[in-house]
Write a structure and sequence with these properties.
- The structure is a homodimer.
- Chain A is α+β, with helices and mostly antiparallel strands.
- The first copy, chain A, folds into 2 domains: 253 residues, no CATH class; 128 residues, no CATH class.
- Helix content of chain A is 18%, strand content 20%.
- The first copy, chain A, contains 9 helices and 14 strands.
- In chain A, the strands form 3 sheets. In chain A, strands 6, 7, 8, 9, 10, 11, 12, 13 and 14 form a 9-stranded antiparallel beta sheet that branches. Chain A has a 3-stranded antiparallel beta sheet with strand order 1-2-5, with no helix packed on it. Chain A has a two-stranded antiparallel ribbon with strand order 3-4.
- In chain A, a hairpin with a 5-residue loop joins strand 12 and strand 13.
- Chains A and B meet through strand 3, helix 2, strand 9, helix 5 and strand 12 of A and strand 3, helix 2, strand 9, helix 5 and strand 12 of B.
Chain lengths: 417, 417
């Protein structure tokens, strides 16, 4: 097995990149009789095992599929068995291995649905998280887990201007599958959902994608760079302070995990596209092409809001100024790790382009980090100008489970102990 | 400019692969201060110009976005102007160039929406086609074009078991954008739709995707290879006989074009996944992993249905046997060029995985090729077994316009002459 360094993989607990097996890496014949030789290319895979789960500080792959599940059983043992089964499956899928050896037993439905055969695993990561309703749903302690509920885990509230749709929001369990191949993400969620039959079923699912081959910071569908000021993935100090949970953080069993916020933000593409170039930059608070601040500093320089307290250069209600007022220590403590994707679906019911941002962030304390920022953005007295061009229709709050450090252990083990 | 050979690009009239410009190919700074050097990688682009449009015999890129438009103007001159504008835009987009030079005029909405800045063009092709309703809609000759209507162009009929939804079906104009980057496909359709404001608007849109890095024939979401028996893209003889229209084919102005059939085929994933491995192979009529026929021949060998007239090895109502009965000359004449994609959306209204096949094919005569095959598959007396696992919800029939051979000419010019 080769091992090699990979951007960001030095962060504490992140798994190494290994070369996995892949069914179907044999000489194939193309339609028309032309042939391609046996592939020499490495099928890059990321190991499932580690103190933290992957898919948090892992450099964002090009595609994501986030799927929320409702647990339908009332038997905690069945839930526990599912977590064990999902643990094994996730390790197998991330290693680029099929879920069953071929030939599979012809008399039964295939254990592995097979659409991924011959595809590279694309650095697949599968990340598991749980929602508040797993611990307490409408006052009912469904699985005897209420006492284990992390202090900071609530259902996502409705912020000013949110238009949450029940069928796109919340969930008992969330699985995030990310890969450089959308078929691999689909295959992972499909097979995990199939294995959960009778115990949990899909509540919602949201796909996301980033530009495939790009230079520098990726762009959102408003045409602006998104993530310019995101922390570096190898900033271990930041991850320790602002992302990873410690045992004193509200639930000892959750140490090594983190809180995940998902928001499905529909962007009003047609309306946005009718705004002037100048207004677009004012609303966001950055230059469109370069991503530089509006006060003349170069791209990565911090804008100097303190020298512009009237908001003459960067409007007080511009998106970036409200998101991060650069108020020193307090702004640093608030900072979150964003790991979002664009989504580009078909038209909605009224014929608008159904596209936007699948906002995903990780933080150590939802209330003092994400919510603190979000409340500023949605303060009815001075709301983020960008809110006029977005509708948040779904998402939720989830607690990302600690990593699984060795075979035999399983996801959420501390929950059932 | 470099030029190089590219699989399938030798087919008559297919455009060469050239290296295009791309805004944003400069040194960029990553979050956290690390840097990447200026890209040396070629941004592969395909030339827009040629006797045939691209996106037909072009090797399938990994992503597609097919968008249908309703023409809303009743002024043929506005329609003609739109075709001229779209021609210029398509040539620019395919060359990997922005639709407007930066800095754009700050007082107006951006001409180019900008989300593609910094991304590779991913061999973008944009293919334009027109539907029967452009010539005659409910008996009305909307643009004085009725006399130009190609003989073989009708609205797609409802085949046995089809569940076509009006808002996902038909359209006056269809644009197919294909690229190795889904953001590039989205950007193309978005900007073409934006430019059409007041003249045409989006009726439906459907995204599709293939596995990113795969060996050999790609697979559909039933886990089977799809396209094993598709003609080779460099088989010029096949394209001449079965794909490209000649001036005697029903409309002289359409010579160099072809007919396109689109069908949005939802696959009942959850139901399929409960069928036994053996039943899945029987329904399709091929081995799942290898794609080989069920009668013992190797992958690319033709199954010998004549030696199995009772259907003991390959069921008479299996998908591949009904699709292509290998009846010699008559089956050869029917053969179509498939260029389909998988689609993987979120859940549907009743919580099922909303995924399937975006079937796309090109043929010289819809009635004697696609429809002849399709009528066999949907014959109520012996329907394709696979129909029990699919629902066709949208699509349409379209005439792909001839290529534009030189600057100054435009798409559909022969239509307005």
């Amino acid at each position: 097995m080769n091992r090699r360094a990979f951007l960001g993989m030095t962060a504490a607990g992140a798994a190494g990149v290994v070369l996995g097996d892949l069914l179907g890496k044999t000489k194939q014949i193309l339609p028309g009789g032309s042939q391609v030789a046996t592939a020499d290319v490495a099928n890059e895979t990321i190991s499932f095992y580690g103190a933290h789960q992957t898919g948090v500080v892992t450099p964002a792959q090009n595609f994501a599929n986030i799927a929320a599940f409702d647990v339908t059983t009332s038997d905690v043992k069945e839930l526990q068995e599912l977590m064990k089964q999902w643990t094994e499956m996730a390790a197998t899928l991330m290693a680029g291995k099929p879920l069953a050896a071929e030939p599979q037993d012809a008399k039964f439905p295939p254990t592995d649905t097979g659409e991924q055969i011959g595809l590279d695993t694309g650095k697949l990561t599968i990340t598991f998280a749980v929602g508040a309703t797993l611990f307490d749903k409408e006052g009912v302690d469904r699985f005897g887990l209420r006492a284990k509920k992390p202090a900071g885990l609530t259902e996502m509230p409705i912020f000013h201007k949110d238009t949450l749709q029940e069928q796109l929001t919340h969930g008992d369990i969330v699985i995030q599958a990310c890969s450089d191949d959308p078929m691999i993400c689909f295959h992972a969620i499909r097979n995990l959902a199939k294995a959960a039959r009778g115990v949990a079923h899909l509540r919602w699912q949201q796909t996301g994608q980033l530009g495939v081959k790009s230079q520098g910071t990726k762009r959102n569908l408003f045409g602006f760079k998104d993530g310019t000021n995101n922390p570096a993935l190898n900033d271990e100090n930041f991850m320790k302070n602002n992302v990873w949970l410690e045992s004193g953080d509200g639930a000892a069993w959750l140490a090594g995990g983190t809180y995940m916020v998902v928001r499905r933000i529909h962007m009003r593409i047609e309306t946005w596209d009718q705004q002037t170039y100048s207004d677009q930059e004012t609303i966001i608070g950055r230059q469109k092409v370069s991503g530089a601040p509006l006060d003349g500093h170069a791209e990565m320089d911090q804008p100097k809001f303190s020298e512009d307290d009237q908001g003459k250069m960067t409007a007080l209600d511009s998106h970036i100024r409200l998101s991060n007022p650069r108020a020193g220590e307090s702004s640093e403590r608030e900072r979150i790790l964003r790991r979002g994707y664009n989504f580009m679906e078909n038209l909605d019911d009224v014929g608008r382009i159904n596209a936007g941002l699948l906002f995903v962030c990780f933080n150590r304390n939802i209330q003092t980090q994400f919510e603190s920022i979000q409340k500023r953005l949605t303060n009815p007295k001075l709301p983020d100008q960008m809110l006029a061009y977005t509708d948040t229709t779904g998402g939720g709050y989830f607690a990302v489970l600690p990593g699984v450090t060795a075979k035999g252990s399983y996801l959420g083990q501390g929950l059932f102990a």
